[in-house]
Amino acid sequence: MIDALKDIVGEEHIQVLEEREHPLGNHAPYVVYPHSEQEIASILKLANKQSLKVIPMGGGTKRGLGGVEPSGDLILSLQRLKGIIEHSVGDMVVTVCPGTTMKELSASLAKQGQMIPIDAYWPEKATIGGVVAANDSGPKRIRYGSARDHVIGLRVVYPDGRIIRTGGKTVKNVAGYDMNKLFVGSMGTLGILSELTLKLRPVPPFVSLVLLTFPVDALAELKNFIVSIQDSTLEPFALEVLSPTLHEKMNQQKGFGLAISFEDVQKAVEYEEDWLISRLPQGVERHILRQEEAGQWWSDFTRLPPEDTSYTSVEDDDQFEIALKMGSKNLYALDLVERCHQLGEQQELSVKAHGGAGHGISRAYVKGSRERLLAFVQDMRAFAEELGGYLIVQHAPLTFRQQLEVWGQKPSFFTLLEGIKQAVDPHLILNHKRFVGGI
Amino acid sequence: MPAKDVVVRELAKMVGPGGILHREEDLMTYECDGLTVYRGQPLAVVFPSNTEEVSRIVKYLYEHEIPYIPRGAGTGLSGGATPMGGEVIVSLVRMKKLLSIDYENREAVVQPGYVNLKLTNSIAHKGYYYAPDPSSQAACTIGGNVGENAGGAHCLKYGVTTNHILGLEVVLHNGEVVRLGGAPDTPGYDLLGLLTGSEGTLGIVTEITVRILKNPQAKQTALAYFDSVEDASHAVSDIIAAGIVPAALEMMDKIAIEGVEKANYPVGHPEGVPAVLIMEVDGIAAGIEDQIQEMVEVCKKRNVREIKVAENDRERAAWWANRKTAFGAMGAISPDYLVQDGVIPRSRLPEVLARIQKISEESGLRIANVFHAGDGNLHPLILFDSRNEGETELALEVGSKTLAVCTDVGGSITGEHGVGIEKKEDMRLVFSDEEIEAQTEIRSVFNPHNLLNPDKLFPSPARCAEVKKAVKGSGGVKQAVSGP
What we know:
Distance between the termini of chain B: 39 Å
Largest interface: A-B, 86 and 91 residues
Strand order of the largest sheet of chain B: 15-12-14-13-17-18-16
Oligomer: heterodimer
Radius of gyration of chain B: 22 Å
Helix content of chain A: 25-40%
Structural class of chain A: alpha+beta
Largest sheet of chain A: 8 strands, antiparallel
Distance between the termini of chain A: 25 Å
Radius of gyration of chain A: 22 Å
Largest sheet of chain B: 7 strands, antiparallel
C-alpha cells in the first residue's frame, strides 16, 4: 500500500505517525497529503481496490466527532489543497479548495467587502471542507442560515475515483436532484469534497452586540423578552442565550446572558439598539459592544469548544471536557440551556451552555469525570428528545464515544441512510462507522 | 399489472367512489400540467384525503407495480406532473388544510394541497408571511413547491423553497410513512434537502413544516428605466458588488414591456423603453432610504433614463401585478409562447442577453425577456404561432439554444421550473453521464422500481421516442396560464 501511495503523492507527502493511537480516535499509521483532485482520486481508487479505511481530515477540529474505531488505514489530509480558485464579486460567489481555513477565506473575501456567512468554531484551524462536511455553524445562522443554505456547488471525489460535480455556480439551480445537500453534513462518509462553491454576503457596514444580563431567577422575563424581540420587526443576527457559567466567563456578569447582534447600516443598527434599551425589563443589565469590539467578542466565542490538544491521555479519566450539540424548535433552546445549567449545578459539573432562541441549535461544553459526564449526556438526551429534539456528542475522547451512541438511536428511516451509503461507498472505505447508526 | 377496471375498483375502495376519476373525458384535464406541449393519458386520478389513504394507495400501486405521479395544482412548467401514459395520478388537492401555526417558533404546518398564497394570507394579520413566492402562488400548492423547489421574485435575499422547509412527512415508495427534520440539523444525511426539488421521484410529501417570517418593517420599490439592456444588466452586477442585497431585482426588456402594457395590468411604462429594472429593498426603516439612494447612484453611473420610487403600497402592488403576470401577458402580443428558465452567473448577463438576441434574429422568432436579474435566472419567452407549419418545433429548438448559451457561460438549464419532461435531454448540457448516474443511483435507493414519476428528470439512455410522439399528437402549444 505504502509504495502505491508514494507513487501517487511522492514520499515527501506521506507522514508516518509514531503514535499508535490518538485519544480522540480517528487515527491511522499514515497521513497522506494530496495536492490535487486527481491525486485524491488515485488514492481513493487504491483504497477502494484494497478495501482500506480512509479518514478524511481538514484542520482536525472535528476529530472528536463520531467514530468508534481507534484507527483506520490512512488519514487523507486536505490541508495542502488550499486557496481560492475564483471569487466573482459581482456574482457574490466563491469557489475554493477544501483545505482553506475559514480565517484565510474570510481575510481574502473581506478585501472585496464580502464574507462567507458561516460563523464556524476555531476559524484559524477549521477548513471550509471540514466545516461543510461536518455542517458546523454558529449563532448567526438565525439570519444567515447554515452550510446547506450557502453551498451551491461541489466537486466530490467518489470512493471509486469518479469525480462528480453537484449543483453549479449559480445561486438558483434545480437541474436534477439537489445533490449538494447529500454531502453537507455527511461527515466525509460519502466522498471527498475537492472543490466548493458558496454564496457570499456583503460584510455588514455596521455591527453591534448588545449583551444583556438577566438574574438567574428571571428566566420567565428572559423568555418573554425574546418572544417580544422575535415578534417585533427587529432583525437580530444572533439571539443567543448564555448559561450563567458561560456568561461569567465571556462577560464577567452573574446571571443568564442574552447576546443580540445587529448588522446593518449604522442608522438601522442604532434604531434597533434604542428599541431594545427602551424595552428592557427591570433589573436587566446591559452592555453594548460595537464594530471591532463586537468582532473580538465573537472571535473569542469561536474558541469555546474544546480543542483536540486538550486531551493528553486516553487513561486520564479524572476530568475531561466534552462538547454537546442539541437541536430543537427555536424557543426550546432556552429550556435546554436552563436544564444544562441546573444539571451542572446538581452534578457539580462545569457546564458552559448556549442556545439560539431563533434557530434551535444549543451547545454545551461540560467538564467532569467520565461517570458524571455519561449521566449528564443521558439526562440531557432524554430531555431533548422529550422536546422533540435530539442530542449528539460533538466532541469527546474515543473511549467515551465507545460507551454511548454519539448520534443517538437510529432514525426510523435508517434504511434510506444505509442505502445511500451503500450506493455511493459500497466497500465502506470512507470514515467507516463514523456516522449515524454506524454508517 | 392488473386490468384498469380492477385497479380503479381497488383504489375506489380506499378513497370512496367520489375520490377517483377514470373515464376518458374526466382525465383530459390531467393530460398535462402548465407546460402543454407534451401530453399523455393517465390511467386514473385518485384523490386521497389523508396520509393513511396515500400510504394505502401507494402500497397497492407498489405491490402491483403500477407507476404513479404525485400532483398538486398542476401549475408546473416543465411537465413534471404530465403522464407519460398509463400512470395513476395521486392528486393531493383534497389535503389542503393549514394544520397549525406556531408564531413563537416561527413555523407553520400545512398539508401538501394547501395553496402557497393562502399561508401568507392566513398569517398576515399577525405581521408574518411565507417567503417563497412563485408567480403562480395564488394557485400553486406548497406540496408542489417542495417537489419543484420553487423560487419566486424574492429569492435573492430570502432564498428558495428548500431554505424554508423545516420538516416533512413522506410516504415512501412502499407505502411506509416517515418524518424528516422537525429540528435543525437532525443527525443523518439531509434527506429533507434531497427530497425538496426531487420532482416527485423520491416519495410523496403528505405534511410540510415551513418557516414563517416576520414582515420587514419597511419596504421600498423603485423602477429604473434604461436606454439599453446592457446598461441595465451592468447595473444589476454593480448593485450586488456595492454590497446591497435587494429583496428583489427584476428585469423586463422591450418586448416583455410591450406585452405587460397591452395585457390586464398595465402601469404606464414608457413606450419603447429598452429595459426596466424593478428594485425592492426591505428591512429596518431607518436604513432603507440609504439603500435606495445607493442603488439610484449605481443606476445613474449606468446612464439610467428615469427612476421612480413607489409612493405607496397600492403602487407597489400594481407594479408587482404587472411583473408577475408577465408570462400570461405574452398572450396579448403573440398567439403562442414558450417559457424558458435558464440560469447564469449574474455577472454574465450582458453577454448572455446579447447572444439570446442573436438567436432570436437568426430564427426569426421574437424573444421577450422577463426575469429575476438579481439571481441570474432568465426567463426568455419565445413567441411563435403554432398555426404556422414547423414553428412549434422551431420554438422548442430556440428554447434549447438559449439554454445552451446559459450552460456555456457556466450556468444551468433550470433555476426554478424543474426538469420534468421538457429538459430531460438538456440535462446532458450540464451533467456528464457519470454525474447523471450518480443521481439515478440515489433515486434507486428511494424508488427502486422506478414507479414514482417514471421517466422524468433524467435523460433516457435511448433518446425519448415516446416524447416526440406525444408532441406530435398534442396539437400544438397552448399558452401557459402563469408562472414565476
